[in-house]
Amino acid sequence: MTRFSGKKPHHLEFFSRQVGEIRNLLHVLETRDGFEETENRPRMDMYETGDEVVLEFDLPGFRLEDISLKVCGITLVLEAYRPRELTEGRFLCLERSYGNFRYVVQIPGDSNPCSITAEYRLGVLRVTCPKSDGVQVPIKEITP
User: Fold this and answer.
1) Is residue 18 part of a domain?
2) pLDDT band with cut points at 50, 70 and 90 for residue 141
3) Do the domain assignments include residue 34?
């Protein structure tokens, strides 16, 4: 006869983690619903070093006070605004973007969202997400 140890079987714990990841991805998709195809989105690079994940956004010509960066769980939301510059004459070519910019990206699961830092220099916003050294947040199941 087996004794109940109080721990969830391994396959149920694995399933619970997978369900949590699916919920996080659905949350990211929900926040992207407001994003229209015509809306501007800055270019982004994401790379990983030994102890951090780095995201770099191209935001040339933006003022620091027009950039907003929020962390919602494991989702990073970048919003920025660049006004259109008024010029004399008429445009012959108009390739630079202006107006509202938005980028929603999911931070890799092994990053620590509480330790994220950002730096804006020379038109590049660099967001550094330190890794959490394999420490995972315990999930506690509460049963009535």
Assistant:
1) yes
2) low
3) yes
Query: Is residue 143 one of the residues assigned to a domain?
Result: no
Which pLDDT belongs to residue 119?
94
The answer to whether residue 144 is domain-embedded is no
Tokens for 23, please give them.
């919920």
What is the token pair recorded at 127? 């967001």
Q: Is the distance from CB of 60 to CB of 76 less than 8 angstroms?
A: no
Residue 76 domain boundaries: 10-85+93-130
* 30-80 pLDDT, tens digit each: 655 554 444 577 889 999 888 888 999 998 888 889 999 998 877 888 999
- Any idea what the CATH number is for the domain that residue 120 is in? 2.60.40.790
How many folded domains does the chain comprise? 1
Cα(113)–Cα(128) distance, integer angstroms: 10
pLDDT at residue 38 in the model: 45
The per-residue pLDDT for 87 is 78
